[in-house]
Amino acid sequence: MHRYAAVFSVSLIVVALLQWRGNAYGAEFAANADEPAHYVTGLMVHDYLARGFPSNPLEFAREFYSRYPKVAIGHWPPVFYIVQALWTSLFTESRASLLSLWRRSARRCLP
Fold first, then answer.
1. What sections of the chain are H helices per DSSP?
2. What is the pLDDT of residue 1?
3. Domain region containing 103
4. CB 3.0 to 4.6 Å from 40: which of 2, 26, 70, 102, for a disulfide?
5. Does 84 lie in the same domain as 45?
6. From CA 24, how far away is CA 36, in angstroms rounded?
7. Which pLDDT does position 30 carry in this prediction?
8. pLDDT digits (tens, 9 = 90+) for 57-100
């Protein structure tokens, strides 16, 4: 029993140190500085589609930006945000869900 507790304790310490070394506790969303903006922009598109196109897209974006100023339209092609909106409609809007989508997309784009 003590052996399992020791292995668990050492594993926990190693994982915590690796996370600290990788700046897991200081990053806004993930390792890339642009990812929080992509996340919020994708959520804006998701909300716009989920609400059934409630107003002019520019008015909706301005309203959304007033509450969530990380919106950054124009950095990536709009299809990415549409894919992200569809993904969050099927799955969740959680960090883990979107990181899974982004990692899948990155693997397909790499040679």
1. 2-21, 35-50, 57-67, 78-90, 95-109
2. 77
3. 32-109
4. 70
5. yes
6. 14
7. 64
8. 999 999 999 999 888 887 777 888 899 999 999 999 888 888 88
Confidence of residue 28 (pLDDT cuts 50, 70, 90): low
For the question of whether the overall pTM of this predicted structure is more than 0.90, the answer is: no
41: amino acid identity, one letter: T
Q: Give buried/exposed letters for 70-105 (b at 16+ CB in 10 A, else e).
A: ebbeeeeeeebbeebbebbeeeebeeeebeebbeee
Burial of 5 (0-12, 13-18, 19+ CB in 10 A): exposed
> How much is the average pLDDT of 11-28?
83
Q: Are residues 47 and 85 in the same domain?
A: yes
81/87 Cα distance (integer angstroms): 10
How many domains are there within the chain?
Answer: 2
Domain check: are 4 and 18 in the same one?
Answer: yes
